[in-house]
Each structure stands twice: as C-alpha cells, then as structure tokens.
Amino acid sequence: MRMSLLFVPTLKEDPQEAEVISHRFMLRAGLIRQLSAGVYTFLPLGWRTLEKIIRIVREEMNRAGGQEILMPAMQPAELWKETGRWDMYGPELVRFQDRRGRDFCLGPTHEEVITDLARREIRSYRQLPLLLYQIQTKFRDEIRPRFGIMRAREFLMKDLYSFDRDVNGLQVSYQKMYEAYCRVFRRCGLEYIAVPAESGIIGGDVSHEFLIIAGSGEERVFICLSCGSATTVEEARCPQCGGVVEEKRGIEVGHIFQLGTKYSEPMKAYFVDRDGKEKPLVMGCYGIGIGRTMAAAIEANHDERGICWPLALAPYEVVVIPVNMKKTKHWEEAWSIYEELSQAGFEVVLDDREESAGYKFAEADLIGFPIHVIVGEKTERNGVVEVKLRKRNERAEVRRTEVCEFLRKIRKELAE
RNA sequence: CGGGGCGUAGCGCAGCCUGGUUAGCGCACACGGUUCGGGACCGUGGUGUCGGCCGUUCAAAUCGGCUCGCCCCGACCA
C-alpha cells in the first residue's frame, strides 16, 4: 500500500477527550474516531489490527473444535423473561420496541439465543459435545463508558458456548477453551495471565479471567513466584506454597465460565442421554473482547513516541521510507524494495508522500510499524539501507541486495 | 447516578473574572518558492450559527437560568 493513498488521519496533538494512553494513540495514529460516548468507527489501520485479532481468535476456536455461527443482535424480550434476566439486567440492556410495540433488546451477550437454538436442535447425547461461537457486535449501555474503546457501549466480542452431557464433559470443554485462550493471547504477542474469578451476572460455578499484563491495568493480580499461581484477591495469596508474591496490573480481555444448567434448566433445553433419560444440557460460555484486546495491546506496548505493535497485530509489518522524494535514487530504490517485499509476502507500506524525513519518521513511530526500512544517503553512497526495529529501537545497516532475506529473518525472530 | 472539568475555525488553545472596534494564536488546509535523516522555512489565501434555547442590557463569546454533548474520579463489566 502506498501511504499517499492510505486513509490515516493522524493527529500531531493529543485530542482533549483522551487521557488514557491507548485511547490517545488510537486517535492520534488514525486507528479510530469517536461517534458518541463509547461508540467508535474503526478506520483502515484500526480495522486491519482488529481483523488480525479476529483471525487469530477464529483459528484457535476452530482448532479447539468450535464451529462459527452468527446470531442476531436483535433479540425478543420473551427469551430474556424466561431466564429472568429481562428484569435482572437493568438499564444496561438496550431495550426498544418494534412498530407493533413488542419488546426487544440488543444483545449484550447471547446465552438466551444460543440456548433457544440448542433446545430446538439438540435431541440426543450423540450430538454432544457441541461448541458454537460467533464474533459479533455487542451492545451494553454502560453506566460509564470509559478509556476509549476499552469500555465501549458497542463493541466486538467473540463468544463461544459449549454444550455437554455432564459435568465431566463440561470440564473437558472448559479445559480446551482455557488452552485455546492461552494460545490466542500468546499468538497475539501479549503477556497474559489467567486467574480464578467471580462469575457475576452470567452465573455458574467455575470461572477464569484472562488478563493482559500492563502497568496501566485496572485490576491487581498477585502472582506467586514459586508456584506460579495467580489470584486477584489479595488475602488469598497463594497460601498453599507460601512463596514470594509479586503484584502486577492487568486488563481483563477474556472470561470463561462453567455455567452448568443455569440456562438450560429454566429454558428447558434437554437432551436424551444414553440411558434414555431426559437431562438438561450442561453449558459453558467463553468470551473475548476483541477491541479491548487491541487497546490492551497498546497499553502494554508503547513508548512516548507511539505504538510498538507486536508483529502479529500490526496493521502492516513494514514501512519503507524514502528520505528525500526529490532524489531519484531514494525514490527508485524505495519503490523497488517495496515491490520486492510485497512480492515476498510482506505486508508493506511505501511512504511515498512529499513530506520531510522527520515527519515520516515521527508518523512511522506513532503508527508503530514493527519494521522501518529507510532509504537515504547511505543507500545512494554505499548501497545500504537502514532497518529499524520499532519496539527494540535497534538499527542495522543492510545491503540493498540482502534486504528481503534480512527481513525474513527479522520477521521470524519477531514472531516468536 | 453522585462528585469534578470542558464545549470558541478541521485539531490544540487564548479571550470570559472586569460586557463595547473587524473574535485572536499555533497546527492543519490551498497556491507559489526555498528546503529534505527526526513532526522544515518564507510569502499569499480561505475558514467561525463562540454547543443550543431563553433571559438581563443601548450592547453578550463574556452576566443569569435552562438544556444538550464530551472527558475524568467513584459503585458495575469483555
């Protein structure tokens, strides 16, 4: 992609409405724009990153045996009355009526809809276990939308629901998801931790939160350095081993629950087991905040100049910067490197704008391309380009002829 | 919902307290020229229902009331 054609409205100054770092950089780097409190548009670069997270999540859900579906955001009140949540959920539930005066809501989560589907379609234990998921926009009229995209009123979420014959089956599904979540966050290049958690309004017995470790995180986590166990409750400091406890801060990006029969009982979602008896489906549900993961990734990976994307989440992997557009040599070499890298399968942007070098450097840092290839005087004189790694702030001079090979190695290294 | 803050050009702000010329500055934008390895410089130019409504006054960005929106802190959440 050529930078001159990319729609990236960057901001030199901090927008007054943004205080939190990820929010500031997302606005400044031209990733998002706000429409209303807690409601955002994703611009091309922001959407690319979001799609990268989605792809990783999707691959890992599929790998764990999940099957993707898409449920409606618009849901009839009747379902919510069956579980009692129409009254329980409160004003956070976005409610409205259709033209005939029938009550509906915009789904903040989908237990009711999926359980309704399950009770209609699952008859026999032979159909179990079943893991269904979707990646979809959720609506929650938050008391107080906050921190930009971090707590939005409209946001993208991956939610998976497991259906099993019994508690043993549920535990197997739960364990699969637990591991899938670990893989998702590891592949995103993020430092994460899983901690036992309260299950809140979703209900159920066992539950874990997945947190991205970031200094600005709202939640405190206590990690035992000897046994590795973690908790969010200060008093419960891993008394079992008595080791040294380290406190860190984290941002909740995922939550998994063992629901049991909390929804299947009231909604009468039964199946016939091997013994011929009717039993309620044993359920679990598993969520990942997609946008939140993006914000958390920035909270955990930035410096004063801007974002330092992990390779896996960067909107583009490489930016090629010709220092002086007036010098034919810079321009030609930059173009040929751009072509070569594109051919080689890199996601690369060519900064072909008539801007000063300093301007391009500052913007490349802000946006956070993991790899910068700078074509300038050294290229003209010695046939070398400068390769800069954004996150480590390391620079290397590489011969023009070896650029592609060098970047292949770097990419492999950064991917680990 | 309680507490605090903000709303003036696309963005960041000054002006308001103490009402009174044509509402200003920086950035951005357009055109011309000079620059070109860390957000360049010079010149020229365009840009405003001063968030909205009502009121006070000869006169309101400025004073008063109401209202809308946004941000931050608290109780809830991916």
Can you describe this structure?
The protein is 31% helix and 29% strand. The protein has 416 residues and is of the alpha+beta class. It has two domains: 283 residues, 2-Layer Sandwich (BirA Bifunctional Protein, domain 2); 100 residues, Anticodon-binding domain (Rossmann fold), CATH 3.40.50.800. Strands 3, 7, 8, 9, 10, 11, 12, 13 and 16 form a nine-stranded mixed sheet that branches. A five-stranded mixed sheet has the order 20-19-21-22-23, with helices on both faces. Helix 1 crosses helix 7, helix 2 runs antiparallel to helix 6 and helix 2 crosses helix 7. The longest helix has 21 residues. The model has no long low-confidence stretch (mean pLDDT 93). It binds one RNA strand of 78 nucleotides through strand 8, strand 13, strand 16, helix 7 and helix 9.
**End-to-end separation:** 26 Å
Largest sheet, if any? 9 strands, mixed
Rg (CA only): 24 Å
The helix fraction, in percent, is: 25-40%
Shape-level CATH architecture of the largest domain:
2-Layer Sandwich
Total DSSP helices: 11
Number of strands: 23
Q: How many domain regions?
A: 2
Topology-level CATH name of the largest domain: BirA Bifunctional Protein, domain 2
The CATH top-level class label of the largest domain: Alpha Beta
CATH homologous superfamily grouping of the largest domain: Bira Bifunctional Protein, Domain 2
List keywords for this structure.
416 residues, alpha+beta, BirA Bifunctional Protein, domain 2, Rossmann fold, 2 domains, 11 helices, 31% helix, elongated, RNA-binding
Entry summary:
This protein has 416 residues and is α+β, with helices and mostly antiparallel strands.
